[in-house]
Amino acid sequence: MKKSTLLMAMFLFGIVAMAQQNEQETLLNTEYNKWSIEFGGGFVKPSSPFADGYSVRGIAPYQASVGVRYMMNEKFGIRTNFGYASLSEEEGSLPFETSYYRATVEGVSNLGNILEFSEWTNSIGLLFHAGGGFSLINNEAPVELDEKDSAFNIVLGITPQIKISERIAFYADFSLIPNVGMERSWDGTEIIQTANRRIDDGLLYNVSAGFNIYLGSNSTHADWYSEESTLKSKIEELEDRLVKVETDLIDTDQDGVPDYLDREPNTTSGVAVNTKGIAVDVNKNGIPDELEPALDNRYVNESDYVKNQGGLNVKELLDKGYVNVYFKFNSTTPETYSLEAINYLIKYMDENPAANAELVGYADEIGNAEYNKNLSEKRANKVKEILVASGVAESRLTVTGNGEDASVEKGSAQARQLVRRVTFKLK
Fold first, then answer.
1. Fewer CB atoms near the end CB (10 Å): N or C, the chain?
2. Sheet containing 324-326: which strands, arranged edge to edge?
3. CA 255 to CA 125: how far, in whole Å?
4. How far, in Å, CA of 347 to CA of 373, rounded?
């Protein structure tokens, strides 16, 4: 028994020493809850001593316990526990009834975290506890003896756990409880002589099951906290944030304003924009200011629209490529400022019912040549749809996709804007 007491003392000393060593980290750690209460019940089996004619051959009817535990860190803690057991005779024994009360203070080791269970499970845990306290034994026997007995107890136990939720865990506990210094047998009828004492006198085998209820404002308890798992979780969280930042910084039209802030995410490539990603258009004519000088060479102004007044007539303006419909990059939707160009052809076709027109589409050199060939034809068909919807007979229109226009410098964004077009040929 002295060896058992010494072993328990060394265990508790180790717990305290480890707690002091980690005190600074523990005080700073607010990532997990530390308090819990436990409720359990089950069976108890008493060993000797029993007087002649008294015995409990099987397990005693029942026992119950309640405890409060505080974890100093995710590996070590301390708890206090209060237990009650009822001992009575079984068939063939003389009658007796004993009530057993105990109170203990114990050190707790979270073997699940020490052995790194988190590497293979997040729902199974294992606790080891050891400590000691005081026991009160009340006997009710038909003999004239002091009915009260007391002893010091030592507790050694192992507690497997299964996590049900972040607030509740189911546990089963298997403990040995030696009671040191009992003066009488469990039945209360015989005084134990010192010379007759055995090493297993006062020993209880305690088996119980119950629930741990976790307290605190954090999402998890120290029983289930893993620094490595938490680190992995934080890394994953940071990776998710990084992905979001990268997504937010995507700038589809490459105007220097990320898409999530860009109110005009399809701005023509290369033109100046304001802080909201809107193309600078001081005169509010629908044409980005930086494109106006370049378009003057290919796009006819309304003042140039004349009919037989010594200058270019409408047919020549259309045939020589002064009137064009322009498109955004990789788009079949005409630029808003190009819709007037379609109107020129509509006016001409209305004034010349015998005229036919060929719509010739082009694309810039960015991308696959075959893709650009199809894109140029789609652009021509888009203009055809607008003309037909405006009243021009479909039979008077033909469509050609000429693919890439390599007449401008491929590296110039403004120049490429000029070749993404549909032009007209009158017949």
1. C
2. 324-326, 421-426, 357-363, 397-404
3. 56
4. 29
User: Which pLDDT score, from 0 to 100, does residue 408 have?
Assistant: 86
What does the block give as tokens for 117? 């269970």
Please indicate whether the domains covering 2-223 and 295-426 agree at the CATH topology level. Answer: no
Biggest distance spanned by C-alpha atoms of the chain: 142
Q: Where are the alpha helices (DSSP H) in 35-125?
A: 111-114
SS3 111: helix
Return the percent helix, strand and coil in the chain, to nearest 5.
30, 35, 40
Q: Token digits for 198?
A: 């055995």
Per the CB < 8 A criterion, the answer to whether 265 and 253 are in contact is yes
Best-predicted range by mean pLDDT among 29-33, 130-134, 265-269, 349-353?
A: 130-134
Write the DSSP symbol of residue 95.
P
CATH class of the domain comprising 295-426: alpha beta
CATH of domain 2-223: 2.40.160.20
User: Rounded to an integer, what distance in angstroms lies between the CA atom of residue 135 and that of residue 154?
Assistant: 10
Q: From the CB of residue 213, how many other CB atoms can be counted at a distance below 10 Å?
A: 14
Q: Is the pTM of this model over 0.85?
A: no
Least confident interval from 25-29, 345-349, 353-357: 25-29
Domain regions of the chain by residue span: 2-223, 295-426
Whether the CB-CB separation of 127 and 109 falls below 8 Å is answered with yes
Q: What is the pLDDT of residue 299?
A: 45
What DSSP string runs through 306-373? -SSSSS--HHHHHHTT-SEEEB-TT--SBPGGGHHHHHHHHHHHHH-TT--EEEEEEE-SSS-HHHHH
- On whether the CB atoms of residues 46 and 206 are closer than 8 A, the answer is no
Cα 348 to Cα 328: distance, rounded to the nearest angstrom = 26
In this structure, how many other beta carbons lie within 10 angstroms of the beta carbon of residue 143?
12
Q: What is the mean pLDDT of residues 146-150?
A: 76
Beta bridge partners of 71: 77
Phi and psi angles of residue 247, each rounded to the nearest 5 degrees, phi first: -65, -45
Report phi then psi at 352, rounded to 5.
-130, 80
